[in-house]
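Thread: Newbie trying to understand structure tokens

Hi all, I'm a second-year student working on a class project, and my supervisor (Dr. K.) asked me to get a predicted structure for one chain before our next meeting. I've only ever worked with sequences, so writing a 3D structure as a token string is new to me. If someone could post the tokens and maybe explain what I'm looking at, I'd be very grateful. Here's the chain:
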Amino acid sequence: MQRRDLLKSMVAACLSSAVPNIALSTSALAWKNWSGNQRCVPSARIAPQNLADLQTWLRNNQGKMRSVGSGHSFTALVPTDHTLISTSYIRGVTQAVDKIMQADIAAGTQLSSVGPALNEMGQAMINMPDVDRQTLAGAISTATHGTGRALQCLSAYTTEIELLTAKGELLTCNNDTNHDVFKAAQVGLGTIGLITRIRMQNREPFKLRRLARW
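---
Reply by user tm_fold:
Sure, no problem. This is what the structure looks like when written as tokens:
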């Protein structure tokens, strides 16, 4: 191990012990999106293990911060010289309401994981982008991925959003509660708060048949 790598690992160990259950990256601060057209070197990158840790961190830290999903967007939403926050550990389909075909999905869940989990619960997403590596929160925030009036973007099927403000306040937002925040957060570009949970309107499972003409 080189001296530089050893020092970085020691710093990471100290920081991790000082803030329990927070995964800190000091050895690979540089970030870029999937296409490489957006890059940055933030001063810190954090990935809280759960909602409680994320809320605690926000309450005890100040300064500029931005959230990051899977880095699929090609726009300059993520690059920062300050703190970069990932919700990659806050993932999974937590519960389903069968009567109205809705389900709660954690923000850091990749779309590739949503379909199989919903299928086990007797549900399916109404629309699915052709690329499934995005996190659901990122796909909602950037209005991915519409296919006309009949199949709208994913944010159109959002019925409730839970988000954390920069002060660590947890808000539940829907048509009845915090309505204005809810409508703004549906395509919030990461500016409204840090999305932690999304309730999606779904449908019954279905099969697709592909017909290719040559």
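A couple of things are worth pointing out once you decode it. The domain at 3-86 is CATH 3.30.43.10 (Uridine Diphospho-n-acetylenolpyruvylglucosamine Reductase; domain 2). The mean pLDDT is 86. Feel free to ask follow-ups in this thread.
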